[in-house]
């Protein structure tokens, strides 16, 4: 789920080692848009605390640009956007379901599971290669193979906002950062690149 399309996966293979070399993990890669102007969105974080700062976004952007310019996997112009996953982050790796246990998430599968493809509930960790989720309105914990997921994302709610406030407080950040209560900081660094071919 870190990469959806073949093109996304090719880009991920190129930039994963770049991120690792500067101590970051790639959370998700998406190449979006049509043929005229595309946007390459890369979400990254430090594995130690699942966060990233603006300086790290800029460093990763510069390092990835060198590799992408040399390999030239994207035809035409594109905008490179490097950011944090945000407070209502996507859950793209099996380990994310252990890291964010106890929080509410929305899931979508690539096949019907008990008559549906979309689910909402409280993340209950993992069991082998499956994710565990306590679904709304269900008594038992559901196990869904991770490989069946096409999308998973934390739900913005009070529990998630309180978690974000606690993390900011632990880092010694002021409570009032000028953003509406619970709004994630914008940690985006964008760069426009053009294909010289």
UniProtKB/TrEMBL annotation:
Required for maturation of 30S ribosomal subunits. It is found in: Cytoplasm. Its main location: cytoplasm. CDD domains: YlxS_C (cd01734). Keywords: Cytoplasm, Ribosome biogenesis. InterPro entries: Ribosome_maturation_RimP (IPR003728), RimP_C (IPR028998), RimP_C_sf (IPR036847), RimP_N (IPR028989), RimP_N_sf (IPR035956). NCBIfam families: PRK00092.2-5. SUPFAM superfamilies: YhbC-like, C-terminal domain (SSF74942), YhbC-like, N-terminal domain (SSF75420). Residues 170-197 are annotated as: Disordered. Residues 184-197 have a biased composition (Basic and acidic residues). Residues 14-88 form the Ribosome maturation factor RimP N-terminal domain. Signal peptide: none annotated. Residues 91-156 form the Ribosome maturation factor RimP C-terminal domain. Belongs to the RimP family. This is Ribosome maturation factor RimP. Pfam families: DUF150_C (PF17384), RimP_N (PF02576).
């Amino acid at each position: 789920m870190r990469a959806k399309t073949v093109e996304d996966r090719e880009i991920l293979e190129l930039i994963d080692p770049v991120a690792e070399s500067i101590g970051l993990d790639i959370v998700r890669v998406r190449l979006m848009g049509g043929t005229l102007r595309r946007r390459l969105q890369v979400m990254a974080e430090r594995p130690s605390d699942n966060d990233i700062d603006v300086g790290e976004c800029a460093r990763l952007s510069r390092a990835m640009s060198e590799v992408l310019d040399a390999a030239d996997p994207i035809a035409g112009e594109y905008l490179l956007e490097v950011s944090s996953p945000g407070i209502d982050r996507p859950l793209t790796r099996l380990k994310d379901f252990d890291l964010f246990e106890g929080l509410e998430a929305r899931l979508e599968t690539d096949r019907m599971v008990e008559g549906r493809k979309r689910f909402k509930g409280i993340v209950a960790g993992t069991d082998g290669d499956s994710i565990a989720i306590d679904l709304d309105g269900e008594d038992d914990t559901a196990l869904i193979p991770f490989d069946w997921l096409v999308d998973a994302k934390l739900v913005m709610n009070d529990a998630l906002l309180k978690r974000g406030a606690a993390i900011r407080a632990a880092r010694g950040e002021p409570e009032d950062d000028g953003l509406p209560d619970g709004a994630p900081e914008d940690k985006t660094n964008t760069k426009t690149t053009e294909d010289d071919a």
